[in-house]
Design goal:
This protein is α/β, with parallel strands linked by helices. The protein is built from nine helices and 15 strands. A hairpin with a 2-residue loop joins β2 and β3. The structure holds FE2/S2 (inorganic) cluster. It holds the Pfam family FMN_red.
């Protein structure tokens, strides 16, 4: 086996790591416990750079944790922690004087074990539940409240009215998701390290299939024809739960960047925005920008707004007026009529003719610049 020099000892003091290139592969060197070891740099999960990971003594040895989603490998044997079967590539190291030499080929080859993701099979394989004639309407209520102290929510009430009308008039199948009742984690920002670190299904979901966003992905991407998002106005913005959900939906949009793949196919979105005070237009703008980037189509007049102005601090009367409002009763129905009409038009579209005029990975001005630490 041939060996090549990849570093000098002074470049790799005790307690440090370094990523080097060996032929066409990147290799992570570690100098811990008085020994230099080398394993493949590309994590077997999604290719995260192991040479940038934290090193700790744990389990039965010293392990590196992948900085992307936390897979672990023994830095000497390349094995996954006890109980897992993944094997990372291991290279042989020789020291000659000040030179660190590495075998040109791994002495143990990488092997990814099978991981049971059957609970996410429908999401992984995009098993759409919509049909040529389905009218599946998903309502997402983003308001927050203590369900032990239930209060009247104008946004949720308008959403309930809309869904009830959709069933009555069109025989639509409807579902309501109340975000406050889902236990889901915030987006943990993996995308910020590398676009490939934001995966489909979401890596947080992969780590915990019981995370509440699994239901949102399933119902929004696979089941719904129409998505109605209802939000209160909170200090001029949509509800914080809406933003929490939106951040976790980056996984849907990121498939366009990574694979030119549009997950949202022939779906309509519309919005219910209510508040005691104003800023309906700004909230509608926020919602529409994001939902168009996901690939949704809007009906004409795609949002319903309700507010009473800056000086309307008498919120009890807001509810009073809302309950009596003929405008709300009428426009919740009109919104559904417009959504169903728009849906009937776009159902005929050939989804493969729809392209996303969005940046793809090769569009970046720095696409050709090699990042020596990354594997992709
Ligand atoms: S844990 Fe390494 S890429 Fe996901």
């Amino acid at each position: 086996m041939d060996f090549i020099k990849v570093a000098s000892l002074s470049e790799l003091p005790e307690g440090s790591s370094k990523i080097v290139k060996v032929k066409n592969s990147k290799v992570a060197l570690f100098h811990f416990n008085g020994k230099i070891t080398a394993i493949g740099n590309a994590c077997l999960h999604k290719g995260g750079p192991l040479g940038l990971g934290c090193i700790e003594k744990k389990y039965d040895g010293t392990y590196v944790t992948c900085p992307w989603h936390g897979w672990e490998y023994n830095i000497q044997t390349g094995t996954a922690p006890p109980g897992y079967k993944d094997q990372q590539a291991v290279y042989e190291i020789k020291i000659k004087g000040d030179a660190v030499l590495i075998s040109e080929e791994p002495i143990i080859k990488a092997k990814k074990a099978t991981h049971d993701l059957s609970a996410l099979d429908d999401l992984i394989h995009l098993k759409y539940q919509t049909t040529a004639t389905s009218i599946n309407i998903l309502g997402i209520s983003t308001t927050n409240m203590n369900d032990d102290l239930v209060r009247f929510s104008t946004s949720e009430n308008a959403l309930e009215k809309a869904l009830a009308y959709a069933t009555e008039k069109y025989g639509a199948e409807t579902k309501m998701i109340k975000l406050r009742q889902l236990n889901f984690r915030h987006c943990e920002g993996y995308y910020s390290q590398h676009m490939n670190a934001c995966t489909w299904p979401c890596s947080v979901t992969e780590m915990d299939v019981k995370d509440g966003m699994t239901q949102v992905y399933r119902d929004m991407v696979l089941w719904a024809d129409v998505v109605l998002v209802a939000t209160p106005i909170r200090w001029g913005n949509a509800s914080s739960l809406y933003y929490k959900m939106a951040e976790r939906l980056n996984t849907v949009q990121n498939q366009i960047t990574l694979k030119k793949k549009i997950l949202i196919q022939n779906k309509v979105a519309a919005f219910i925005i209510t508040g005691g005070q104003d800023n309906i237009q700004a909230v509608a703008g926020q919602l529409m920008v994001f939902f168009t980037d996901l690939g949704f189509v809007f009906p004409p007049f795609s949002f319903l707004g309700w507010s009473r102005g800056w000086t309307a601090e008498d919120m009890d009367k807001n509810v009073l007026q809302f309950k009596k409002s003929e405008y709300i009763k009428r426009t919740t129905k009109e919104m559904i009529d417009n959504c169903v009409e728009t849906l009937s038009q776009i159902k005929k579209r050939d989804i493969f003719k729809i392209i996303a005029p969005k940046p793809h990975r090769q569009d970046s001005l720095s696409a050709d610049i090699d990042n020596p630490e990354m594997n992709i």
